[in-house]
Design brief:
- With 408 residues, the protein is of the alpha+beta class.
- It has 2 domains: 31-238, nmb1532 protein domain like (Four Helix Bundle (Hemerythrin (Met), subunit A), Up-down Bundle); 248-399, Pnp Oxidase, Chain A (Roll), CATH 2.30.110.
- The chain contains 15 helices and 7 strands.
- The chain has helices spanning 2-8, 12-15, 31-53, 59-94, 99-128, 132-167, 170-183, 189-198, 202-210, 214-236, 248-257, 265-277, 332-339, 366-376, 380-386; strands at residues 291-297, 304-310, 312-314, 317-321, 342-347, 350-359, 394-399.
């Protein structure tokens, strides 16, 4: 009987095919967008300074600057039109209450385009007869455009990129870059690539170049980089703000030779002295991470007080940590800037005024900024925090906008 029953009742376990578990779609890595945004922030500030530096009547120099303005205009147009056509429709189809943020992006694009068109119209008169008088209206228009761009880029980074990472796939995100590559004039591609790679971190550079076909990477290495350096020297001249990379040996020593030790106080003082005395030619990458010199105003003495600090970039802002070598108390410079938030930054050979503000650990931005600092220092700030019970705060420094010519 058992044998008969067994023959009449097949073993369904042997013939049932298990339902395959769907592979979750890979979410976008939006670091490439942060690197691209950095280009627009840098170049709009540089255009302001380049226009101011053109001698009166020097139409040849004005022509060089005007051509670079046109390149900025092309890059921004294709970047924003790509978002309008590729990214926003996908997000709007998948969002409910958050759709308002995407609609705000579209409205900001219109403001950015309008202010840029106004600047382009005023550029024509200055280009034909460069002078302080003709530059005034142009610089005013550029300031309005800069304000619109900065507001838009920050809003997108803070509110839209997290939605992209949540609701889009990497394949969908890649279409934005594919569209840019297909529509941008071919004679501009290597130059635009150079603009993006110029201030990219090693991780960003690896991400950006990994998307390039092998022939394109070879073309950039053999020809593009040299052409870019030549063109950028022609454009910027004495205003070239490029920050030197951190030497590989210094970065290796920071990571492996003394990962849990701070540099001796005497070496730190020597580092600051070399940084300042060399005008930033020495010191930016001397201790294994990108360093700036922060000058605050003493809250009691009212005298300038300078210190060299490892920094990270957050768009156009600079981020530092008040680690104080993991001591139990906050460093003196933190109290100085809390009393007077106006500070001065020296980043390599570039000096700019700025405004500093504290970001505590309860601030929703803190974890992202802390991660940026750890990436810039090979995890040193996590190790500092492990050595002290004091919550180490983060400070964000926003450079002051360029100031237009003053006319009597």
């Amino acid at each position: 009987m058992p044998a008969t029953i067994s023959a009449q009742r097949p073993d369904t376990r042997a013939t049932t095919t298990p339902t395959p578990t769907p592979t979750p779609a890979r979410r976008p890595d939006t670091r490439d967008m942060i690197a691209i945004h950095r280009v627009f922030r840098r170049e709009i500030d540089l255009l302001h300074r380049l226009i101011q530096a053109v001698p009166e009547g020097d139409t040849a120099r004005a022509e060089v600057v005007a051509r670079h303005f046109a390149d900025y205009q092309i890059g921004l147009h294709f970047h924003h039109s790509g978002e309008d056509e590729v990214v926003w429709p996908l997000l709007l189809a998948r969002l409910d209450l958050e759709a308002e943020m995407v609609l705000r992006m579209e409205a900001q694009h219109e403001i950015v385009a309008r202010t840029l068109k106004e600047a382009a119209q005023r550029l024509a008169g200055w280009r034909a007869a460069p002078s302080a008088t003709s530059a005034g209206p142009l610089l005013t228009a550029l300031n309005e455009h800069r304000a619109a761009v900065i507001e838009h880029l920050r809003d997108e980074e803070d509110n839209i990129l997290p939605l992209v990472e949540k609701h889009l796939t990497q394949t969908e995100w890649d279409r934005l870059g594919e569209r840019f590559a297909a529509e941008v004039p071919k004679d501009k591609m290597l130059f635009f690539l150079g603009l993006i790679l110029e201030d990219a971190t090693p991780a960003e550079r690896e991400l950006l170049t990994s998307h390039l076909p092998a022939p394109a990477r070879l073309l950039w290495t053999c020809i593009g980089k040299r052409q870019y350096d030549h063109k950028i020297r022609e454009i910027r001249g004495a205003l070239d703000p490029r920050v030197p990379p951190v030497p590989r040996l210094a970065r290796w020593m920071n990571r492996h030779a003394s990962p849990d030790k701070s540099a001796p106080e005497a070496l730190l003082r020597l580092h600051l002295w070399l940084y300042q005395k060399s005008g930033g030619r020495i010191g930016h990458g001397m201790i294994g991470g990108p360093c700036l010199v922060l000058t605050t105003t003493g809250r009691k003495t009212h005298q300038p007080r300078a210190i060299a600090l490892v920094y990270a970039r957050d768009g156009d802002r600079y981020v530092v940590a008040a680690s104080n070598d993991a001591r139990a108390q906050n460093p003196g410079w933190l109290f100085n800037l809390q009393a007077e938030p106006r500070v001065t930054l020296q980043v390599a050979r570039w000096t700019v005024a700025g405004t500093a503000h504290l970001v505590g650990r309860t601030d929703p931005r803190f974890q992202r900024l802390w991660a940026l600092l750890n990436a810039a220092s090979d995890g040193r700030y996590d190790r500092y925090q492990a050595r002290t019970a004091r919550p180490i705060p983060v400070v964000v420094i926003e450079p002051a906008p360029a100031v237009p010519h003053q006319h009597p």
